[in-house]
Structure formats: C-alpha cells, structure tokens
C-alpha cells in the first residue's frame, strides 16, 4: 500500500467515526419499482409532517437537497422486470446525489419512494466510502432476480442487484452500466425478516448471509440481535454504516400505510432502540426510509405510519428517549427556568 493510499484509508476511517452534525435530505418520489399508486407521495408527506423541524430540534444542521428528478432513458425493458428504464434512470441520478451529500460532509437521509431506490443510495455510498456495511431492516429479503420473481416488481430485487457475489445471476441489464454490484455478502445483515421466498432463503443459506428474522428477535431481543449482526458485518468497528429501513419491517399495527404489510413485525419501540444503537456507533453515514404510502388507509393510519417513520429517523440521528443532553458548559439550572 503506497503512502497516498494509506492516507486515504486513514482519512476514510476518521471521517466514518466523526460526523459534523450535518444532515442532507434527499426525496425520491418514485413508485415504478412496484404497482401500487401513492408511494411516490412518501417524501412530501413526511416532510409536511415536520421532519426537518424535528431534526433541527436535535441541534443538527439540516439541508434539504429537494427531490430527485430524472430523464427516462429510451432503453428496452428486460423480461419480468417492470419499468427497468425508469428504475435505471432514477437510481443513477440518485447515486450521484448521494455522492454529493457525502462530499458535502453530511449524513444522508433518503426518503422514498419504494425500496428499489436503494440501488442508487447504496451504490453512491459505496462509491464514496468504499467499505460500507449495510443493515437491511425489512420484512422481505428483496433478493429475487427477474428469473425468480413472481411479480416482476424491482422493489423485490435491489439486494440481489447490489451484492457482488450474485452478479452472475443476472442477464445484461440495459441502462444499468453505471452500476456494478459492489456490496460483498459479508457486509450485509438483515434484521426483521418474516416473509422470505424459497429462492431467497436458498440464497441466504447457500451464501451464508447474516440474517435475523422476527423469530430471532423474539429469542435474543433486538439489542442482542443488532450487536450480533454488527459483529458479523463490521467486526473491527471501522466501516461506514448504511441503514436501509423499509417501513413494512414494523408490524402493520405500527405502520399500516404501506404496500406489502406482513403481520407479526417489529414494534416501534424495538425499531427505535435499534436506531439508537446504530447512532451510538457514530459511524452511520446514510439511512433510507422507504415504502410509506399515504394513499393506503385512512387519516389515522397515515398519521401513525408517518409518525413512526419520523421517530425512526430521529433515533438514528441522535434523539434519545431519556432527553437531550444539555449544552457543554452548563452545570446548573437557572431558577428562572421554573418561573
């Protein structure tokens, strides 16, 4: 390793460990990875519920980079892979946006949109930070290919598109030349699985992917599951962390406004604890919050789901249920506080 390469490695490790308290929000109003209308309204609905204000309360410097816009390329779709031209164009642009936010020394908060958008967020993160560990919080494994998917929906395929060891499972994908599978299997951990297709289970078992389902959480508890997962994918506590959080990882009672709900999921309390633990690593560089669909359910359902999404993001970025810490140098409480 030459001197320049060694310096870059040292700088990368330092930048992973110490954040500047700055956050960049990217909205991705995208719904072409699945067939249900409404999920594209996720970003506007979460913003309207006060996300930015809630993060500023934490003392964070928040910059909203707006929504991703893209021009659809004129390419041929692949059999049993719906709207590939849209997916390829949107995620390519999103990857560039994520890279820019990281270069601006900000933690990335991406609001979807359906789960196909993480093809772009994880790609951009890896291109900037190289050695990235991904914690995939989801009811589903999203490990299908166009040959194994029953639906052809790309939001059930992003993990398979990102994992380097699965590149041979895919045909040539027009429009996706910008994206090379760069996520090693050893750097991926699932938490919250409870609806896994047969092929996905085969891939998980054959390749030894770190995967904790709801049954494991019931047995070990969410605290232990997180630390077991982190020890597997980041044993030396040095990688940049990426959380891909699908709102359907929560039980439908906690987040009913989503397109593919599965009963028996995480409690919001467990999800918040998980995010608090991730925050305490001080290595979180990016979080995706996807699959909030404000056109599913009544007003109460939407409110519950959006509030859950904001709680998850807040916890990942430093909100503590014990209360925020006082500013440095404050050692006493002025009497006028109580008057």
From TrEMBL:
Entry-linked PROSITE patterns: ARGINASE_1, ARGINASE_2
One Pfam family from the record: Arginase
Chain positions recorded as Mn(2+) binding sites: 115, 138, 140, 142, 246, 248
Catalytic activity from the UniProt record: L-arginine + H2O = urea + L-ornithine
Coiled coil: none
Claim: Iron-sulfur is one of the keywords in the record: no
UniProt cofactor(s): Mn(2+)
Annotated cofactor note: Binds 2 manganese ions per subunit.
Annotated InterPro entries: Arginase, Ureohydrolase, Ureohydrolase_dom_sf, Ureohydrolase_Mn_BS
Keyword vocabulary terms for this entry: Arginine metabolism, Hydrolase, Manganese, Metal-binding, Urea cycle
One Gene Ontology cellular component: cytosol
EC number in record: 3.5.3.1
Molecular function as annotated in GO: arginase activity; manganese ion binding
Gene Ontology biological process terms, A to Z: L-arginine catabolic process to proline via ornithine; urea cycle
Pathway: Nitrogen metabolism; urea cycle; L-ornithine and urea from L-arginine: step 1/1
Family: Belongs to the arginase family.
Record's protein name: Arginase
High-level lineage: Eukaryota, Metazoa, Ecdysozoa, Arthropoda, Hexapoda
């Amino acid at each position: 390793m030459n001197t320049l390469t060694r310096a870059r490695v040292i700088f990368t490790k330092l930048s992973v460990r110490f954040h500047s308290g700055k956050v960049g929000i990217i909205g991705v109003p995208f719904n072409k990875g699945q067939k249900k209308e409404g999920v594209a309204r996720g970003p506007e609905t979460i913003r309207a519920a006060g996300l930015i204000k809630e993060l500023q309360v934490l003392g964070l410097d928040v910059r909203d980079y707006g929504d991703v816009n893209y021009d659809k390329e004129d390419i041929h779709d692949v059999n049993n892979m719906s709207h590939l031209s849209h997916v390829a164009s949107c995620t390519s642009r999103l990857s560039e946006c994520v890279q820019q936010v990281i270069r601006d020394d900000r933690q990335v908060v991406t609001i979807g949109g359906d789960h196909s958008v993480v093809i772009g967020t994880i790609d951009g993160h890896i291109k900037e930070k190289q050695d990235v560990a991904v914690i995939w919080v989801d009811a589903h494994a999203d490990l299908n290919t166009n040959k194994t998917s029953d639906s052809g929906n790309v939001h059930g395929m992003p993990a398979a598109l990102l994992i380097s060891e699965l590149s041979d499972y895919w045909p040539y994908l027009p429009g996706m030349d910008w994206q090379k599978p760069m996520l090693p299997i050893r750097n991926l951990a699932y938490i919250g699985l409870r609806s896994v297709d047969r092929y996905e289970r085969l891939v998980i078992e054959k390749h030894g992917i770190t995967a904790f389902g709801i049954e494991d959480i019931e047995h070990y508890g969410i605290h232990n599951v997180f630390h077991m997962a982190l020890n597997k994918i980041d044993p030396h506590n040095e990688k940049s962390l990426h959380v891909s959080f699908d709102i359907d990882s929560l039980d439908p009672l906690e987040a009913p406004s989503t397109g593919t709900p599965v009963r028996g999921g995480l409690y919001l309390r467990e999800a918040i604890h998980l995010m608090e633990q991730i925050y305490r690593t001080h290595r979180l560089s990016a979080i995706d919050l996807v699959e909030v669909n404000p056109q599913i359910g009544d007003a109460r359902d939407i409110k519950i789901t959006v509030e859950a999404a904001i709680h998850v993001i807040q916890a990942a970025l430093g909100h503590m249920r014990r209360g925020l810490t006082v500013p440095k140098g404050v050692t006493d409480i002025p009497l006028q506080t109580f008057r």
